[in-house]
Amino acid sequence: MGYAVSITFTKNGESRYISHLDLLRLFGRALRRAGVPFEVSKGFSKHPMISIKRALKLGIESENEEVKFILSKEMPAEEFKQRMQEQLPEGILIKQCQTKF
Question: Which residues pair with 96 in a beta bridge?
């Protein structure tokens, strides 16, 4: 069992044109580039364990979107937030980060 990290983020500006599936890919790439140890799904086509609470329609801005990551190792919330924010594009801003071990 992994370690859960929940974040609240904004999706504004040009980033509002990122679709739900592309947002999942964006977070997956950000995890890899940030060097965050994450859990992968079981099965043939493995992918990072990421869950976005609600799917936003394309072109809609939001101030409070929620996403949950499953990590393979424990990591402080502030370190996770800083490392991820450096890898995310303009318009995607992490507002809050919580860890649940």
Answer: 8
Tell me the domain boundaries of the chain.
3-100
Q: What's the CA gap between 28 and 82, in Å, rounded?
A: 16
Instruction: Beginning with the edge strand found earlier in the chain, give each strand of the sheet holding 62-71 in spatial order.
Output: 50-52, 62-71, 3-11, 92-100
- Per-residue pLDDT tens digits of the chain, which is 101 residues long: 689 999 999 999 999 999 999 999 999 999 999 999 999 999 899 999 999 999 989 999 999 999 999 999 999 999 999 999 999 999 999 999 999 86
Q: Which CATH number is 3-100 given? A: 3.30.70.580
Q: Give the distance, in angstroms, between the CA of residue 100 and the centroid of all CA atoms in the same chain.
A: 15
If residue 52 lies in a helix (H) or strand (E), which one and from where to where?
A: strand 50-52
Integer Cα distance of 75 and 17 in angstroms: 31
Tokens of 15: 């980033």
Indicate the SS3 state at residue 10.
Answer: strand
